[in-house]
């Protein structure tokens, strides 16, 4: 059974999609890598970005980390603070 | 002390925070909005942050620095929103007994901020704009 | 700008001097009077200078730094006279386009000041005093 | 024929001699090394100092530099600024 997760977008990813949050439908027990694949399918423009990381609950997540429906998920394009 | 703020960064109050009777050295680094990027004139910058995580990552960097060097005080203040030329985007302040530690910790903190903290900078030129580092 | 002064060093006006539209990085180092030397409690410090030569040597250091790094602004202010705990004895400020140059130049300047500039510091303890570095 | 030069003293050297300027009698065409020797003879307490340099007209001077009567001469004990 699929579930829907919300993904926070910032900077270039927000500009490319025109949205600050997007919903993604994922199979049960999906991992970060599948979330990223699905986002790339839904928003092909993301391919132009140098790198994309995912944060889960405010922490950088590995590709094999499980994604839960109530997690706070964010897409992290290359940072440029300072 | 860690802060992410929409208000101008006040160096005088930062200095006040950094003072300690045991401090022999204080290093303050300021990242400032400059008027050009590779000779292209910049009009202004816009900084955007994933606030919760940015604060968490800055705190991790401060904790790391505190592990690596004997810091008496450590201050990281990052600005967000629209910044004009000459405005301070980030202030790192470190107080230590001896100067080598202050320089090394301050440099470590700013270098690491630029690698890990989810803050994004858009350069706005007279004729366009670009998210810094976003594209290959 | 080079100065040797009997007045308290004002960081706010130093920052004003350091600003430049081309500056992306400003590093400010402060040497501060701390309350102890090797665990011995310090009451106050007295700084004495051979004024003419101290200014000349500080100018040489600034000129060297300007040769070695692309500095937009460079400020060296040294205090003399009696200083209490927490007071600023020396301020080095450097503004550059990029941060590595600011850190390196600032560190070079303070390290070299401590080697060549004819300024002498007397540490005054509750029960004695000593000219720093004077004896073997 | 001897000439007399004035030497400015600072810090530890001023404290040890109790004077901020001392006069030293030197032979004609004396050099910095001879000035230092004469100062050590006149003020044996200077031997307790880790090192002593001489400045002539506001510049560090080498041991073989000539000393002239109208030069501004200063004795430089180990510096401790910053």
UniProtKB/TrEMBL annotation, chains A, D:
<dbReference type="InterPro" id="IPR012675">
    <property type="entry name" value="Beta-grasp_dom_sf"/>
</dbReference>
<dbReference type="InterPro" id="IPR016155">
    <property type="entry name" value="Mopterin_synth/thiamin_S_b"/>
</dbReference>
<dbReference type="Pfam" id="PF02597">
    <property type="entry name" value="ThiS"/>
</dbReference>
<keyword id="KW-0547">Nucleotide-binding</keyword>
<keyword id="KW-0501">Molybdenum cofactor biosynthesis</keyword>
<dbReference type="InterPro" id="IPR044672">
    <property type="entry name" value="MOCS2A"/>
</dbReference>
<comment type="pathway">
    <text>Cofactor biosynthesis; molybdopterin biosynthesis.</text>
</comment>
<dbReference type="GO" id="GO:1990133">
    <property type="term" value="C:molybdopterin adenylyltransferase complex"/>
</dbReference>
<protein>
    <recommendedName>
        <fullName>Molybdopterin synthase sulfur carrier subunit</fullName>
    </recommendedName>
</protein>
<dbReference type="InterPro" id="IPR003749">
    <property type="entry name" value="ThiS/MoaD-like"/>
</dbReference>
<dbReference type="GO" id="GO:0006777">
    <property type="term" value="P:Mo-molybdopterin cofactor biosynthetic process"/>
</dbReference>
<comment type="similarity">
    <text>Belongs to the MoaD family.</text>
</comment>
<dbReference type="GO" id="GO:0000166">
    <property type="term" value="F:nucleotide binding"/>
</dbReference>
TrEMBL record, chains B, C:
<dbReference type="InterPro" id="IPR036563">
    <property type="entry name" value="MoaE_sf"/>
</dbReference>
<dbReference type="GO" id="GO:0006777">
    <property type="term" value="P:Mo-molybdopterin cofactor biosynthetic process"/>
</dbReference>
<dbReference type="Pfam" id="PF02391">
    <property type="entry name" value="MoaE"/>
</dbReference>
<protein>
    <recommendedName>
        <fullName>Molybdopterin synthase catalytic subunit</fullName>
        <ecNumber>2.8.1.12</ecNumber>
    </recommendedName>
</protein>
<keyword id="KW-0501">Molybdenum cofactor biosynthesis</keyword>
<dbReference type="InterPro" id="IPR003448">
    <property type="entry name" value="Mopterin_biosynth_MoaE"/>
</dbReference>
<comment type="subunit">
    <text>Heterotetramer of 2 MoaD subunits and 2 MoaE subunits. Also stable as homodimer. The enzyme changes between these two forms during catalysis.</text>
</comment>
<comment type="similarity">
    <text>Belongs to the MoaE family.</text>
</comment>
<comment type="pathway">
    <text>Cofactor biosynthesis; molybdopterin biosynthesis.</text>
</comment>
<dbReference type="GO" id="GO:0030366">
    <property type="term" value="F:molybdopterin synthase activity"/>
</dbReference>
